[in-house]
Amino acid sequence: MALTGRAPLLVLAGLVAVALQPGWGAFWAWLAVCAVLVGLDAALAASPRSVSVQRAPLAAVRLGEPRTGELLVANTGRRRVRGVLRDAWQPSAGARGERHRLDLPPGERRRLSTVLVPTRRGDRLADRVTVRCTGPLGLAARQRSREVPGRVRVLPPFTSRRHLPSRLARLRELDGRSAVQHRGQGTEFDSLRDYVDGDDVRSIDWRATARRQSVVVRTWRPERDRRVLLVLDASRTAAARLGGGPGGVEVRLDASIEAALLTAALAARAGDRVDLIAHDRRVRARVRGASRTSLLPSLVEALAGLEPSLVEADWDAVTGQVRSMARQRALVVLLTALDTSVLDSGLLTALEQLAARHTVVLAAVDDPSLARLARERGDAEQVYTAAAAETAAAEREATAALLRRLGVEVVHAAPEELAPALADRYLALKAAGRL
Amino acid sequence: MSALLEAPGAGSPDTGPAAVGRGRWRGPLLVTALVVGLVLLLTLLTPSTSREALAADSTAPEGARAVARVLQREGVRVRQERTFDATLAAVRAGGPGTTVLVTDPGLVPQQRWEALADAGARLVLAAPDGDALEELDAVAPGLRTTGTPSARTLPPGCDLAAATAAGRARAGGRTYAAPGGSDAASCYGGSYVVLPADPATGRGEVVLLGQPDVLTNRWAALEGDGALALRTLGTSDTVVWYLPDPLDTETPLVPLASLAPPWTGPAAALLLAAGLTTALWRGRRLGRLVTEPLPVVVRAAETVEGHGRLYAGARATGRAAAALRSATLLRLRALVRLDGTAAPADVADQVAWLTGLPARRVLALLDGPDPADDAALVQLAADLDDLERRVRARST
Question: Does the ipTM surpass 0.85?
Answer without folding.
Answer: no
